[in-house]
Amino acid sequence: LYYFPAAGTFYYRAAVSCGTNTSYSNSVQTTVPAYLPGGTYTINSGQATNISSGGTNFNNFSDFSNAIASSISGPVIANVTAGTYTQPLTFTIGNTCGTSATNTITVNGNGATLSYVTTDSTHKGAVTINGSDYITINGLNINGYSSSNTNYSYGFLVYNNADNITINNCSILLDSNSTSNKYAGIVFSGLASTPF
Protein backbone atom coordinates (compact mmCIF):
# COMPACT_ATOMS: atom_id res chain seq x y z
CA LEU A 1 0.00 0.00 0.00
CA TYR A 2 1.39 3.36 -1.03
CA TYR A 3 0.06 6.59 0.48
CA PHE A 4 1.00 10.15 -0.35
CA PRO A 5 -0.89 13.38 0.31
CA ALA A 6 -0.91 14.87 -3.17
CA ALA A 7 -3.38 16.67 -5.38
CA GLY A 8 -3.52 16.28 -9.14
CA THR A 9 -4.12 13.69 -11.82
CA PHE A 10 -2.16 10.46 -11.59
CA TYR A 11 -1.96 7.19 -13.48
CA TYR A 12 -1.61 3.85 -11.69
CA ARG A 13 -1.14 0.27 -12.77
CA ALA A 14 -0.50 -2.98 -10.96
CA ALA A 15 2.48 -5.24 -11.53
CA VAL A 16 2.23 -8.94 -10.77
CA SER A 17 5.49 -10.87 -10.65
CA CYS A 18 6.01 -14.59 -10.56
CA GLY A 19 9.62 -15.69 -10.72
CA THR A 20 11.24 -13.74 -13.55
CA ASN A 21 7.95 -12.90 -15.32
CA THR A 22 6.05 -9.65 -14.68
CA SER A 23 2.63 -8.70 -16.06
CA TYR A 24 1.16 -5.21 -15.90
CA SER A 25 -2.47 -4.12 -15.72
CA ASN A 26 -3.91 -1.34 -17.84
CA SER A 27 -3.26 2.15 -16.46
CA VAL A 28 -6.05 3.79 -14.48
CA GLN A 29 -6.36 7.57 -14.23
CA THR A 30 -7.20 9.01 -10.81
CA THR A 31 -7.76 12.66 -9.90
CA VAL A 32 -7.05 13.60 -6.29
CA PRO A 33 -8.65 16.91 -5.22
CA ALA A 34 -6.61 19.43 -3.29
CA TYR A 35 -6.95 19.72 0.49
CA LEU A 36 -9.00 22.63 1.76
CA PRO A 37 -6.50 24.98 3.42
CA GLY A 38 -7.08 25.80 7.08
CA GLY A 39 -8.70 29.20 7.57
CA THR A 40 -11.95 31.09 8.01
CA TYR A 41 -14.62 30.76 5.33
CA THR A 42 -18.20 31.93 4.82
CA ILE A 43 -21.30 30.07 3.73
CA ASN A 44 -23.39 32.76 2.05
CA SER A 45 -26.18 31.92 -0.40
CA GLY A 46 -26.04 35.49 -1.75
CA GLN A 47 -22.59 34.90 -3.24
CA ALA A 48 -21.20 32.26 -5.58
CA THR A 49 -18.80 29.59 -4.38
CA ASN A 50 -15.38 31.02 -5.22
CA ILE A 51 -12.88 28.70 -3.51
CA SER A 52 -11.31 27.50 -6.78
CA SER A 53 -10.38 31.10 -7.64
CA GLY A 54 -8.81 31.80 -4.24
CA GLY A 55 -11.94 33.14 -2.53
CA THR A 56 -13.36 32.13 0.83
CA ASN A 57 -17.11 31.72 0.19
CA PHE A 58 -19.33 28.69 -0.25
CA ASN A 59 -22.79 29.31 -1.71
CA ASN A 60 -24.40 26.44 0.23
CA PHE A 61 -23.78 23.60 2.68
CA SER A 62 -23.33 21.04 -0.11
CA ASP A 63 -20.44 23.03 -1.63
CA PHE A 64 -18.81 23.25 1.81
CA SER A 65 -19.32 19.50 2.42
CA ASN A 66 -17.74 18.72 -0.96
CA ALA A 67 -14.74 20.96 -0.27
CA ILE A 68 -13.90 19.29 3.04
CA ALA A 69 -14.51 15.84 1.54
CA SER A 70 -10.95 15.53 0.23
CA SER A 71 -9.37 16.66 3.50
CA ILE A 72 -8.33 19.74 5.41
CA SER A 73 -4.79 20.95 5.99
CA GLY A 74 -5.47 23.06 9.10
CA PRO A 75 -8.31 24.21 11.38
CA VAL A 76 -11.38 25.29 9.39
CA ILE A 77 -14.02 27.77 10.56
CA ALA A 78 -17.15 28.36 8.46
CA ASN A 79 -19.31 31.35 9.37
CA VAL A 80 -22.85 31.00 8.00
CA THR A 81 -24.62 34.14 6.83
CA ALA A 82 -28.22 34.61 7.98
CA GLY A 83 -30.83 32.98 5.78
CA THR A 84 -32.47 29.64 5.04
CA TYR A 85 -30.47 26.83 3.45
CA THR A 86 -31.94 23.60 2.09
CA GLN A 87 -28.92 21.38 1.37
CA PRO A 88 -27.74 18.93 4.03
CA LEU A 89 -24.40 19.38 5.80
CA THR A 90 -22.35 16.16 5.65
CA PHE A 91 -19.08 15.00 7.20
CA THR A 92 -18.02 11.49 6.17
CA ILE A 93 -15.13 9.35 7.46
CA GLY A 94 -12.48 8.75 4.86
CA ASN A 95 -13.74 11.84 3.09
CA THR A 96 -13.37 14.33 5.91
CA CYS A 97 -9.85 13.34 6.84
CA GLY A 98 -7.19 15.53 8.29
CA THR A 99 -9.24 16.41 11.36
CA SER A 100 -7.52 16.16 14.73
CA ALA A 101 -7.49 17.90 18.10
CA THR A 102 -5.57 20.68 16.32
CA ASN A 103 -7.21 20.57 12.87
CA THR A 104 -10.85 20.96 13.86
CA ILE A 105 -13.89 21.98 11.82
CA THR A 106 -16.23 24.58 13.33
CA VAL A 107 -19.46 25.72 11.71
CA ASN A 108 -20.88 28.89 13.27
CA GLY A 109 -24.54 28.97 12.25
CA ASN A 110 -25.11 32.51 13.53
CA GLY A 111 -28.85 31.80 13.73
CA ALA A 112 -29.19 30.65 10.10
CA THR A 113 -31.76 27.95 9.35
CA LEU A 114 -31.12 24.62 7.67
CA SER A 115 -34.52 23.42 6.43
CA TYR A 116 -34.29 19.77 5.44
CA VAL A 117 -36.92 17.08 4.92
CA THR A 118 -36.38 14.19 2.51
CA THR A 119 -38.02 11.07 1.14
CA ASP A 120 -34.56 9.44 0.79
CA SER A 121 -34.15 6.94 3.63
CA THR A 122 -30.37 6.84 3.09
CA HIS A 123 -29.86 10.59 3.73
CA LYS A 124 -32.02 11.34 6.75
CA GLY A 125 -29.83 13.87 8.54
CA ALA A 126 -29.95 17.62 8.07
CA VAL A 127 -26.46 17.44 9.59
CA THR A 128 -24.85 14.01 9.16
CA ILE A 129 -21.55 13.13 10.84
CA ASN A 130 -20.49 9.68 9.68
CA GLY A 131 -17.36 8.59 11.56
CA SER A 132 -15.72 12.02 11.40
CA ASP A 133 -14.09 13.58 14.45
CA TYR A 134 -13.42 16.99 16.00
CA ILE A 135 -16.43 18.83 14.60
CA THR A 136 -18.33 21.65 16.31
CA ILE A 137 -21.68 23.06 15.17
CA ASN A 138 -22.72 26.33 16.87
CA GLY A 139 -25.99 28.28 16.66
CA LEU A 140 -27.60 26.53 13.70
CA ASN A 141 -31.40 26.23 13.56
CA ILE A 142 -32.68 23.00 12.01
CA ASN A 143 -36.19 22.90 10.55
CA GLY A 144 -37.23 19.32 9.87
CA TYR A 145 -40.96 19.89 10.27
CA SER A 146 -43.24 17.74 8.13
CA SER A 147 -46.52 16.07 8.99
CA SER A 148 -46.03 13.42 6.28
CA ASN A 149 -45.27 9.85 7.32
CA THR A 150 -43.37 9.28 4.06
CA ASN A 151 -40.66 11.87 4.83
CA TYR A 152 -37.53 11.66 6.99
CA SER A 153 -35.74 14.28 9.03
CA TYR A 154 -33.12 13.85 11.72
CA GLY A 155 -31.75 17.16 12.96
CA PHE A 156 -28.33 15.64 13.69
CA LEU A 157 -27.35 12.11 12.72
CA VAL A 158 -24.03 11.15 14.34
CA TYR A 159 -22.84 7.57 13.85
CA ASN A 160 -20.01 5.19 12.97
CA ASN A 161 -17.84 5.97 16.02
CA ALA A 162 -17.73 9.72 15.42
CA ASP A 163 -15.80 11.29 18.30
CA ASN A 164 -15.28 14.75 19.78
CA ILE A 165 -18.50 16.16 18.34
CA THR A 166 -19.91 19.35 19.89
CA ILE A 167 -23.40 20.71 19.23
CA ASN A 168 -23.91 24.15 20.88
CA ASN A 169 -26.93 26.46 20.98
CA CYS A 170 -28.74 24.77 18.09
CA SER A 171 -32.51 24.45 17.84
CA ILE A 172 -34.36 21.65 16.08
CA LEU A 173 -37.98 22.00 14.92
CA LEU A 174 -39.88 18.75 14.25
CA ASP A 175 -43.51 17.66 14.26
CA SER A 176 -44.23 17.09 17.96
CA ASN A 177 -47.24 14.89 17.10
CA SER A 178 -45.25 12.37 15.09
CA THR A 179 -44.69 8.96 16.64
CA SER A 180 -42.63 7.75 13.71
CA ASN A 181 -38.92 6.95 14.00
CA LYS A 182 -38.52 8.82 10.71
CA TYR A 183 -38.12 12.03 12.71
CA ALA A 184 -35.64 12.68 15.50
CA GLY A 185 -33.82 15.65 16.98
CA ILE A 186 -30.40 14.11 17.59
CA VAL A 187 -29.47 10.50 16.84
CA PHE A 188 -26.17 9.07 18.13
CA SER A 189 -25.03 5.57 17.23
CA GLY A 190 -21.75 3.67 17.22
CA LEU A 191 -23.01 1.50 14.36
CA ALA A 192 -21.22 1.67 11.02
CA SER A 193 -24.52 2.03 9.17
CA THR A 194 -27.34 4.49 9.77
CA PRO A 195 -29.63 3.39 12.58
CA PHE A 196 -33.36 2.83 11.95
Structure overview:
By secondary structure, this protein is mostly beta strands. The protein is 5% helix and 39% strand. The protein has one helix and 18 strands. The strands form five sheets. The protein has a six-stranded parallel beta sheet with strand order 6-5-7-10-13-16. Strands 8-11-14-17 form a four-stranded parallel beta sheet, with no helix packed on it. It is globular, with a radius of gyration of 20 Å. The model has no long low-confidence stretch (mean pLDDT 87).
Can you tag this structure with a few keywords?
196 residues, mainly beta, four-stranded parallel beta sheet, 1 helix, 18 strands
Helix content: under 10%
The spatial strand order of the largest sheet comes to 6-5-7-10-13-16
- Biggest sheet statistics: 6 strands, parallel
Shape: globular
Question: Beta-strand percentage?
Answer: 35-45%
Class from secondary-structure proportions: mainly beta
Distance N to C terminus = 36 Å
Distinct helical segment count: 1
Radius of gyration: 20 Å
What is the mean pLDDT? 87
The poorly predicted ranges are none
The tally of strands reads: 18
H-E order: EEEEEEHEEEEEEEEEEEE
Summary, kept brief:
This protein is mostly beta strands and 196 residues long. The chain has 1 helix and 18 strands.
Topology:
Layout lengths: L7 E5 L2 E4 L2 E4 L3 E5 L6 E5 L13 E2 L2 H10 L5 E5 L3 E2 L3 E4 L12 E4 L4 E3 L9 E6 L4 E4 L2 E3 L9 E7 L5 E4 L2 E3 L9 E6 L8
Parallel strand pairs: 5-6, 5-7, 7-10, 8-11, 9-12, 10-13, 11-14, 12-15, 13-16, 14-17, 15-18
Antiparallel strand pairs: 1-4, 2-3
